[in-house]
Structure formats: C-alpha cells, structure tokens
Amino acid sequence: MGKxxxxxxxxxxxxxxxxxxxxxxxxxxxxxxxxLRKLIPVFLSYVLSFVNLGIYWNNHHxxxxxxxxxxxxxxxxxxxxxxxxxxxxxxxxxxxxxxFTTIPVAFYGVVLFxxxxxxxxxxIALINHHGKDSPLGxxxxxxxxxxxxxxxxxxxxPLAFVLPWLSCALFVLVAVIxxxxxxxxxxxxxx
Length: 191
Description:
The protein is an all-alpha fold.
C-alpha cells in the first residue's frame, strides 16, 4: 500500500500534539516580571519538547521519503511511535510545573527513551520491508545516532534519581545531536 495516508496521519497527530502543548502554557496571574519568571521552568520544558517533536517530525519525513510503500507492520510501528509522542504534552507539563524534580524528569526520560526505541523499531520495520540494500537500508547503516540516543536516554532515567539536572543536560545533548540535520538519507537519495 502507498505511504501517503501514513504521512498525512502522522503529520496531523504531531501538529495536534504541539497544539496541546502550547495550550498548556498558562498566562501569568499578574503583570510583573516576577510572575513571568515563575513560568520559566514550564517554558523551558515546552521548548525542549517542541524541539524534540520537531526533530521527530523532520526525521520521520526524511525516513518516509526514502520508502515507496508500507505494510501492516509498518503502520503498527508508526502508531507505536505516535503513542509515545502523544505523551509529550503530559510529561512536559508535569516536568515544568514541578521545576524539573526527580520523578517527573525520570518519567520524561522514560517517554523519550520509548519514543526513540519506537522510532528505531519503525526504522527496522521499514528496512526489513524494503531490504537492507534499499536506499533506506544503505542510508541508515549502523544507525549510530539512534543507538547513542537510546543509550543517553536510558542513562538519564536512573541519573534523574541522583542528579535530575544532569538528566536534563542529556536530553538537551541528544536534541543537539539531532538538531544537526541528519543528511544520511538525503546523501543516499540525491545523486
């Protein structure tokens, strides 16, 4: 089957997730800078999640540009990814509202880890469907960025119980790694 509905549905879900997140940003109750300052943790958690969603959207787009068609396994793998991404508004709000304390930061790390794992699974499903010698299989290769991201997210979870700020630093580090556009697919598809 074609990939068009999968792309359109995924784009719509990610747009809704971002909309829900921005609606969670509440207006300060006063007109002073102090009232605005109280919202800094909420805003920072929003920025982190917005960047992460943007990274997923961008890489999902590139991933699907490298394939011709999808099957049922790919549809389910994509839904698995969208499920974990749909939890971003909840864990973003929880972490920001609680000033990056241990349990919310650990939970955010779990959601980031499972979103990354589900993206990895989607990639494997696509490569299995199209073949390891397909343009996508060649472009992804050993997927160092994907594996190192999973490692950092996995490390961030227990680290949150000791140094939550260091877990947050790992979240930012992974985002920075992926903010630099992943050119593997573009290099493979463009002669």
